[in-house]
Amino acid sequence: MIRDELWKTDVNRLLESTGIVANIERYAINDGNGVRTTIFMKGCGLRCRWCCNPETQSFHPEMSFFPDKCIGCMNCVRQCTCGALKEDLTAKREICMDCFKRENAFSCTEKCYVNCRKVTGEKMSVGQVYDIVKRDIPFYESSGGGVTLSGGEPMAQPEFAYALIRTLTERWISMGMETCGYADSEDYEKVLPYLDTIFMDIKHIDPDKHREWTGQRNEKILENIKYVDKLAGAYDNKLFIRVPVIPGFNDRPEEISEIARFVSGCGNVAGMELLPYHKLGRGKYYSLGRKYPLEDMIPPTAERMEELIAIVAGCDIPVYKF
Ligand code: SF4
Ligand code: SF4
Ligand code: SF4
Questions:
Q1: Is 117 helix (H, G, I), strand (E, B) or coil?
Q2: Domains and CATH numbers, the chain
Q3: Which of 319, 160, 102, 13 is nearest to 177 (CA)?
Q4: Distance, CA 102 to ligand 1 centroid (Å)?
């Protein structure tokens, strides 16, 4: 929850606010208008089976290992005094978490000079983030771009998200946010006055099916979308609804129709985007020592996507592709 006193805090003091950032991607072009910098924040209350950013789900830093880049120098094994690293270079992760809590670092990663064993998740201040994003201000100005908060779920670290959004906006950077909607309603009200664009997800209308595939029911999410929609008119936000199209979960025409009907009942949605399932995040699961949950899943065909897009367009909802 964003404390009321933050509203009154001088914006220069917000530069000291800290949060956990998974990654900062420069020159992103799919997260809003123009050239953007996307800040991927750690932590999410959902566990979508298709998630392509599993390294952002946990709130804590994690160690990733990408074996295809490993040169076999064994520096990491020599550095590990806990016996967690095996000959095949896989780690006993429960020991690693204890190691991290004790040392506040994954020390083996510091000896991996090719960076195939690395930490995801770094405590950063708003000032440190600003120092990175400000290098690209000329690109934002020439392309109509800006900065997008993503994740994970940015609103899962609400005060850090608020501090970032307000600080960058007051430095004339256009701000966008991608949110799954699983957050406190009051917090949306506090960030919306500073946002140009907000992307919210609808994954399914049926609460039970939503829980089966994401770990949580969707009532709160749908309520938040209605709430943000109401405020978007007042704050002049561009609100887009995104739907990840997942075969066997929500790719039947009637399921997309239900979502489109819900969106038609909103007054300020600028448009919808349907995002076909892909497998690009698969390797990240294995790098974290996890199994990929949808190994046999096949992405939707172009024909199926066209059919579903036509349903949305048939409800007079503009269809976007960012
Ligand atoms: S995180 Fe710690 S325990 Fe785990 S492999 Fe690295 S040094 Fe060893
Ligand atoms: S330090 Fe890095 S490159 Fe060397 S063996 Fe370990 S993971 Fe592989
Ligand atoms: S809401 Fe997004 S970040 Fe969270 S688990 Fe689902 S896909 Fe991943």
A1: strand
A2: 5-58+122-314 (3.20.20.70), 62-120 (3.30.70)
A3: 160
A4: 11
